[in-house]
Design brief:
It contains one helix and 34 strands. By secondary structure, the chain is mainly β. Strand 33 and strand 34 form a beta hairpin. It is flat and about 135 Å long.
């Protein structure tokens, strides 16, 4: 049987042009903040947003007499997170518009003050029409991404500003600015040990026409203890007149092409920090350190996966390419030849058997004797409607009494389809009309008439049931049999002849 989710309205909260809602826990209690963005009655973006607290006894969120009301300017997104050694709770508020309706020039970072039980302004970020904020923790350090959509006066020149938590000063420091095309959303994504920053670009055209814009996915390269460098501590001594000393830190040498990475070494007694940069020394061969591609199932062996994996215009003639032996996902893929940079399938892929592959490719070339370049390939297998629905039984047998009311449940049949999307959605129908019964699209067979065994002279019905998937172009179907036996009930008294 399949359980159907049902959403019941629990509570309605008063809002004024709300743009976002955020749940968070602080001070041992669960809270909700509804970000009111625009007051249409007063025609202003200067709004007030209330922090509601969950009342466990009443089962609702309440705003008591001591509830905090935040004065904000057109908040479009609110994000709660913890940062710092003390684990302080913060609210990052993306301010989209100022009170006058112009692009807001400052967004706020609010910090929860455990002494007063209130949020206070910790700092303000310079922004221009901020649309979205998000955070991620990497290597124990919190990173904050802030979206600036820009404004019409600046022709929507927009950026995503990435801030990193400065442990020394307990503040966020600007680390990077990424150019965007009128960005409207940002989100950190973590998958299989890698972290990515996804940016949704809206696009902009001076003519006012739709301007196609590519949304972007950045991989976040942050040096990690153990995988990029090895932890170390100790003392450094300077003799009289000595102004330099050697600090030795072990670096994990890998063979993946990636950006230079930096980390900080703290000199505790001197109160100073040193910034150390790990310079990537792998010879550039591959177009990217990771390839995300899609191959349609049932495509013939030899289908191109990545037509050209290299960006080097003139590789040495004896440069060779190969799929690494491990992980074993790469067994279904190969290069067209040892010296070809075209990656192909070498098997017919079946999404129902395997929907995703993750493997490593390798390039060896004389430009770096004894050293190879590596890149990761992630292949998603796209579905086609190659599977028909399958009933959980080839035939169903059921007995019902005669004289049952119209609409009485007779039996529910079920079929599954391993395809995805519309191709996996199954509906049901009778293969031929039978006046006494009706088949609902969800597989439920009901009576369509009051069945009287004596008057109809029928004791058993054999029905054909068809399960059909919802593929719009070439739906597939299968048939099962339902045998319904009518049980006689004692509705007549004996009669003398």
């Amino acid at each position: 049987s399949t359980a159907t989710a049902q959403f019941d309205l629990v509570q309605a909260l008063p809002t004024v042009g709300a743009a976002d809602v955020e749940f968070f826990e602080v001070g041992g209690e669960l809270h909700i903040l509804v970000a009111n963005s625009f007051d249409s009655q007063l025609n202003t973006y200067a709004t007030q947003s209330t922090i509601y607290t969950y009342d466990a006894q009443a089962g609702v969120f309440v705003a008591g007499s001591d509830a905090q009301v935040l004065s904000l300017n057109g908040p479009f997104d609110v994000h709660a997170f913890q940062a710092g050694a003390a684990g302080n709770t913060y609210l990052a508020v993306a301010s989209f518009r100022s009170a006058s309706g112009q692009a807001a020039s400052l967004s706020q970072l609010l910090r929860y003050d455990t002494g007063t039980g209130r949020f206070v302004v910790d700092r303000q970020f310079p922004t221009t029409g901020c649309r979205s904020v998000d955070t991620v923790v990497l290597g124990g350090t919190t990173h904050l991404a802030v979206v600036n959509e820009g404004s019409q006066s600046t022709l929507y020149v927009s950026t995503v500003d990435v801030y990193t938590w400065d442990t020394t000063h307990s503040v966020f420091a600007l680390q990077a600015q990424l150019p965007t095309d009128r960005a409207r959303g940002v989100s950190f994504i973590t998958d299989r040990g890698n972290t990515y920053l996804a940016i949704a670009n809206f696009g902009f055209s001076l003519s006012g026409a739709d301007a196609p814009a590519a949304s972007k996915l950045y991989r976040v390269d942050v040096p990690m203890v153990g995988s990029d460098y090895f932890p170390s501590s100790g003392s450094i001594f300077f003799e009289a007149g000595q102004v330099t000393q050697v600090l030795r830190i072990g670096v994990a040498d890998d063979t993946f092409e990636e950006a230079d990475e930096t980390f900080v070494v703290t000199l505790s007694s001197a109160g100073q920090q040193l910034t150390v940069t790990i310079v990537d020394d792998d010879v550039g061969v591959f177009l990217a350190s990771e390839y995300w591609v899609t191959v349609t199932e049932e495509d013939p062996s030899g289908t191109p996966v990545v037509p050209n994996v290299t960006t080097v215009a003139s590789l040495p003639a004896d440069t060779t390419f190969a799929v690494a032996a491990t992980p074993a996902d790469g067994a279904s893929f190969a290069f067209a030849s040892a010296t070809s940079s075209s990656l192909l399938t070498n098997a017919v892929l079946d999404r129902e058997h395997r929907g995703r592959y993750d493997f490593v490719i390798q390039a060896s070339h004389p430009a770096a004797p004894g050293k190879s370049s590596f890149a990761r390939v992630r292949v998603g297998v796209a579905d086609i409607n190659d599977e028909a629905p399958v009933f959980d039984a080839s035939s169903y047998r059921v007995r019902i009494n005669e004289e049952l009311p119209i609409g009485t449940l007779v039996v529910t049949v079920s079929a599954t389809d391993p395809d995805v999307g519309p191709s996996g959605l199954v509906t049901y129908a009778l293969s031929a009309p039978v006046p006494e019964f009706s088949m609902l699209p969800n597989g439920t067979l009901v009576t369509a008439q009051v069945i009287n065994r004596e008057s109809l002279q029928v004791a058993t019905y054999t029905l054909g049931v068809v399960a059909t998937d919802s593929d719009p172009s070439a739906p597939q179907s299968t048939t099962a049999t339902v045998v319904v036996s009518i049980i006689d009930v004692n509705e007549f008294a004996p009669e003398f002849s």
